[in-house]
Structure formats: C-alpha cells, structure tokens
Request: fold
Amino acid sequence: MENSKIALLNLNEAELTDYILSLGMKKFYGKQIYNWLHSKLVRNIHDMTNISLKDRETLDNNSYIPLLNIINHQISKIDGTEKFLFKLEDGNTIETVLLKHKDRNTVCVSTQVGCPIKCKFCATGASGYERNLTVHEILNQIYTIERRLRNREQNVNNIVFMGMGEPFLNIDNLIKVIKILSDEKGLNISRRKITVSTSGIITGIERLMEEKLQVELAISLHAVFNEKRDELMPINKKYPLEDLFTVLQEYQKRTNRRITFEYILIKDFNVSQGDAEMLADFVHEFDHALNLIPYNPVVENDFERPSEKKIERFYNYLKNDRKVNVIIRGEKGTDIDGACGQLRQRTTK
Reply:
C-alpha cells in the first residue's frame, strides 16, 4: 500500500536529509529534494531531474509525494471566491477556501477534520470531530491552490488558519507547517502574512511565544461577558476572558503584532449597548482590529441575524463614539457554500 511508505511532505529539511541518508543517498540531495517538494511543488518523484535515476527509484520504492483529491470545487460568480472540498487518504473530507482580493490571494486553511470546540454558531463543530490533520494534509491545501494559481501567473500571498478545526489543538503540526511555509527555500511566505485564528487556547498562544513565531493572531471573541461566551463557546469555561486577556497582552508585548478580534453579531444576544461598551473597553487595551460579522444562519439553533439598523447602531457607536478600529466584515462566496463547514456538511448528508 502506498501510504505504508513515508509521506515526504511530512518531513522538514533536517528530517528529510536524515531520511535520504538512511536510504544510502548523498547528503546534499536533502536540499535538492526539499526544493523540489516545497518550492517547485512537484507531484512525482521522477520529476526530480537533478537526482540520479537510481536514487529516484530508491526514493520512489520507499516514499511518496502525497496529494489531495478534489471532490467538489465551487467558484463564486459574485467575487471569485473558490471553495474546495478535498478527500483525504482515509476517506475523510476537509474544506479550503481561496479568497480573491485585488492585490492578493488568501488561502483559508483547515487544521482538523471537524472541530472539537463545538461553538454554537459553527457548521464545522455541528458535524463532529474526527482527528488532527497531518503536516502534509495541511500543506497540500496550500500547494494544490498554489499550483493552480501559478497556471494563471499568480501566487498564494496570505495564509489564514481559519478553516475547519482549532489550530492550537494541532499545535505541533501547525508550528512545523508555519516554519516550512515561511522557509526561504520553500514558498517563503512572510510570517506577517500568516494568521492563526483561535477560539482562545491559551497554551497554544504561549507555545507560539516560546517558538518565537511572530505570526498574526485572530481571536474568535464573540462575547465580552464570560456567561455569554460560555454559552456560545464552551472552551471559555477552561480559558475564561480574563486569562485570555492576560496572555494576549503578553503576546503583543513580545511580538509587537496587531491582534484581530472577530465578533459575530447575534440578535438579542450580544449586540446591546452594554455589550458595545464592554467590547470597546476590551479591544482598546490592544493595538487592535475588530471585525464585526453579522450572523449567517448555517446550523440549527435559535440564533438570528440582527436587523441592519441594529448592526449599524452597534458599529457606529464603536467607530465614532469609541474610536475603535472596526469594520463590518463583508461576506464572500455568498452564492456558494461559503461558510466554514457548510460545503462538507452538505456533501456528506
């Protein structure tokens, strides 16, 4: 079976070099093979033309270059957003989204099959949790899209770990992926252009600081009172707002990175004047950006989107009265299954 072989994309350069030495190959081949895999993005070992035929055969007999199988691909006629549903080797499926902007292409990447966090408003959590993604399953979401963009003389410019799953619950693989993606011998994507979105896993934020990985952070905040956040996001009972606040202060102090806060607007739940006042107080303690996201009903619950008047009043208070750096985030891919987990859920029904 092919997947009893070594999946080459799971290895960083040092591991790859050790591996090819164990096969009796020359040490300098490590750099060359790493370049083929992570810069040239080859799909076949025999395309590595500066490796001898004998060594390619040895490599092919013992390892393979994993790929993702596209089973659904939707393109928005409104804004060009592209949504991919990929099938993994074990039959599980994950979603990835390509967001088009005038000056950049951003890939929204999944880190888990499903999600164990179970936020009440999220389609991914509603579909259950299976497992963490491997390094190659995360990388290949980006590499598959990068190959397609290169055919249009474009590239992936930004990466957001905002797809299915909680990235910090797959922390070891996440860190390895970030290091490979930002390696100048690979795609060489600046860490300033890599964002990790979290529900507030404090140990993950602390690990980023230990590793000195100065990536951008996006916090799924959604409520600024513990009792409300507990209801929306059960993880808040383990990592309450006051502890999250403390670790974010330390992260910003060490990295000097702006922190983005995501706040979903839910009718009669978190859009009162009191919510707005506390939200402004919270974010003003940081160099911040605040994204307001009107609720998009994609799972069965009692939540509703606020009226446009209510959304506008909430936004205007934050923007004009409190001088918060805030936007109402525009929805992308509204004519396709744009919400996270939606395409997978629809396909597996």
In short: The two ends are 30 Å apart (CA to CA). The mean pLDDT is 93.
